[in-house]
Amino acid sequence: MRQAEYQADLTLKSKFGSNVPSLHELSNNIHMLFLNVNPIWVDNQPLPTNVVYIGGIHVTPLKELPKDLQTFLDLAKNGVVYFSLGTNVKTSTLPPELIQMFVRVFSQLPYDVLWKWDQDVLPGQTKNIMISKWFPQSDLLRHPNVKVFITQGGLQSTDEAIVAGVPLIGIPLMADQWYNVQKYVRHQIGIQLDIKYLTEGEFKTSIETITGDKRYRENIIRLRTLMADQLQSPLESAVWWTEHTLRHGGAAHLRAAGANVSWAHYLELELALIVLLILFFILTVILILSCMIWKIIIRKFQIDIKRKVT
């Protein structure tokens, strides 16, 4: 952790000069924090006023797709399955037997498949599979022929699927992906799979379930409506609160009173110490009284023995 912070400090100094405060100092002087997540998705966490939700700000207006991709999507009579495990995972590094299992299942489907694949060649690739090292994901998902998005469960990918109204199959691999994919199940917008124990039958059944049950699409469209029903758009909210901070020379008036208290004060260790001292005093008194009573009992016992002997 310290090494990562040290590297971050070096990066800051290289970009903004040697006089820039350290990452630790900056983190203790945050006046306004923007979170790219919708409060509905994170269970309405209690946060101070200077923390502002701007979930979905990264979603851009719909742009025209590349011609070859547009043609592929338009000609998919039965629909398209989109498969991407994000940018942090190279799909080609997965176990070969798992890759071939994906290929076999996709070849059995009546759908065409778009697969984000980081190599030029996919072993066993069938005619209904199109591979690419990169896809314009946000725009692709909004094509009406996309039936399901098989994803690792990243937050931005999830946001883009919700905006597009495309149900999900989540295969979490790291970080917050398990949390996000569990939300698919909770909101009934998708299915969770475990890559360690994934079988060919389970994978195929999950795709058939999502594409065959219209409730998943209905639920994700309903969730999209709930998330979009806000007083301001994410961008408008970010702009307004940024200008508010600039107008007032910062946003110290919005910070929580406990923002910079010490860990000892935050955990109220002084109160814990008082409680421990009281307990220590009570135990000490009990121990002393016990010793006194024991001595009295022993003394009485010794006197009784002497009387019997005499």
Automatic annotation (TrEMBL):
Keywords carried by this UniProt record: Glycosyltransferase, Membrane, Transferase, Transmembrane, Transmembrane helix
GO cellular component: membrane
Highest taxon listed in the record's lineage: Eukaryota
EC number(s) per entry: 2.4.1.17
A GO term for molecular function: glucuronosyltransferase activity
Pfam families, alphabetized: UDPGT (PF00201)
Group of enzyme by EC: transferase
Membrane-traversing stretches: 271-298
InterPro entries membership: UDP-glycosyltransferase, UDP_glucos_trans, UDP_glycos_trans_CS
Catalytic activity: glucuronate acceptor + UDP-alpha-D-glucuronate = acceptor beta-D-glucuronoside + UDP + H(+)
Subcellular localization, as worded in the UniProt entry: Membrane
Coiled-coil ranges per UniProt: none
Membrane topology: Single-pass membrane protein
PANTHER family: EG:EG0003.4 PROTEIN-RELATED
Family designation: Belongs to the UDP-glycosyltransferase family.
Protein name: UDP-glucuronosyltransferase
